[in-house]
Amino acid sequence: MLKNFPIISAADGVTRQVLCEHPDLMIARFRFEPGAEGALHSHPHVQSTYVSSGKFRFTLDSQEFEVGPGDSFIIPSNATHGCVCLEAGELIDSFTPRRDDFL
Questions:
Q1: With a threshold of 0.70, does the pTM exceed it?
Q2: Residue 17 CB neighbour total at 10 angstroms
Q3: Is 102 helix (H, G, I), strand (E, B) or coil?
């Protein structure tokens, strides 16, 4: 069943929209303006991130790396991570299990 989820402000210069969800999996779209940040955080969910557009510098458990369009990576459960947007862009994140805090 298709459901339209609202676009919400996740942080300054960042919006989030859940695209689809099930108790076992959630997919969400994040749009970033240049300089916007996804603050360092952790959660029990395994996360897969796909860079749809833009350029980002990620921190993952104290390691920094840059990603751009077409790149993807996995963030393990409870790993501390965050990002800075270097060029306006969009990330598509999958979470397992679902992020109930996003609903």
A1: yes
A2: 16
A3: helix
Buried-exposed string 53-66: b where 16+ CB fall within 10 A, e elsewhere? ebbbebebeeeeee
Determine the Cα–Cα distance for residues 65 and 44; give it in Å rounded to an integer. Answer: 22
Q: What does the pLDDT look like over 5-33, one tens digit per residue?
A: 999 999 999 999 999 999 999 999 999 99
Look up residue 72 and give its amino acid.
Answer: S
Q: Where are the beta strands (DSSP E) in the chain?
A: 8-11, 14-22, 25-32, 37-41, 46-60, 63-67, 72-75, 81-96
* pLDDT, position 3: 78
Q: Which residues of the chain have pLDDT under 70?
A: 1-2
Domain boundaries defined on the chain: 20-102
Looking at CATH, the fold of the domain delimited by 20-102 is given as Jelly Rolls (2.60.120)
